[in-house]
Amino acid sequence: MASEQSTTAILDRLIGFASMSSESNLDIVQWIENYLSQHGVASRRIPDRSGRKASLLATIGPLDRPGVVLSAHTDVVPVAGQDWSSPPFVATMRDGRIVGRGATDMKGFIACALAHVPQFKASATATPIHLALSYDEEVGCLGAPDLVAEVAANPVRPALCIVGEPTGLAVGYAHKGKVARRVVVTGRGGHSALPHRAANAVIAAARIAAALEDMAQQVARHGARHQAFDPPYTTIHVGSLHGGTALNFVPDRATLEFEIRYTPGTDVAAMLRQADATIDAERGRLKAQAPEAAIVVEDMASYPALMTEAASPAVTAVQRLANGGSGATTLSFGTEAGLYAQTGIPTVVCGPGDIARAHKADEWVGMDELAAADAMMRRLAAELGKPAEEWIGR
Ligand SMILES: [Zn+2]
Fold first, then answer.
1. Model confidence pLDDT, tens digit, residues 138-194
2. Is 51 left (phi over 0), alpha (psi -120 to 50) or beta?
3. Ligand 1: distance of its center to the CA of 34 in Å?
4. Which end of the chain, N or C, is more open, meaning fewer C-beta atoms within 10 Å of its C-beta?
5. So which residues are the catalytic ones?
6. Which domains does the chain have, with CATH numbers?
7. Alpha carbons 119 and 333: distance in angstroms, whole number
8. From ligand 1's centre to the CA of 141, what distance in Å?
9. Is 159 exposed, middle or buried (0-12, 13-18, 19+ CB in 10 A)?
10. 380 CA distance to ligand 1 centroid (A)?
11. Where in 61-128 does DSSP place strands (E)?
């Protein structure tokens, strides 16, 4: 049996892995695997196709009882171009804070969970804990679907999932969903003096961008309202448009990226069909000028919205674990929670730190915040001797 390690000692190790989404995460996964096995906990990798990345799933306690999923991502965002006052992949303690990439998003939560593995082991006789650690969350929740499918394939569905993204231990019960797409336009180039013999890809992309903005205005004015969100409606945003190399040349290529952030209950498939219809019309126009022209739409990333009832037993139970915390709230940012909720697992977002500090230079988490999350883990451990239906309800 390994000796217990403190949350801060574990966080120190975790920050040391530069597990940016662009890199393999196998070294941090291996460290966590070893840590778990030192505590007698078996874990299983769910690899991606390249073999460079893996999610990790471990269950502590009885497999045939409804349990609690503690969900987190192992990847962090890049640090390039940021002005850090200490090395980002070295946990640096100052003024009651731990500074380092991932401190708040979201290795602090992983450290709290791992530090309590011994307590979970000792107490999880009736409610098991499932540790579910994903990769590539920061680039569009790419790793989570396979992991969530594994969790959901459990013969007994978990009673609760806590996604430990930084909420200051408030219980996040809802957030918008997102779909991001890239539109690649191929026209026909030519001398700008002879535009009638060419097919201008930039104009096609610009027309699509304008149509998407019209859609956005329409939705903002007439779409469904969800007052818990800011803004209280679904948004469509064109974030980039590139094309053209020189004024005297008709551009033969342009790319455009857009996203839809939708309120729960929105028929996003219908919105995408509307966007596709616009793109189809533009493709037809372009092909009439140049038969070889093409417009290809690529999926970049997507995750579903989260909409757990604010008054549901899951929210109440996690508020109790967080000692009241800062109450129940909607979130302005997306998480993997919608994926878990989609499988029917009651899911909330609750973890230490503040999303406002994420992705920035000198990202930090407070020692007091970690202590509060540790207390939450202790309260959780204290419940695990009881069946989930007794302390969570359904
Ligand atoms: Zn995160």
1. 888 889 999 999 999 988 999 999 999 999 999 999 999 999 999 999 999 999 999
2. left
3. 23
4. N
5. 75, 137
6. 7-175+305-391 (3.40.630.10), 177-303 (3.30.70.360)
7. 32
8. 10
9. buried
10. 22
11. 68-73, 92-94, 97-99
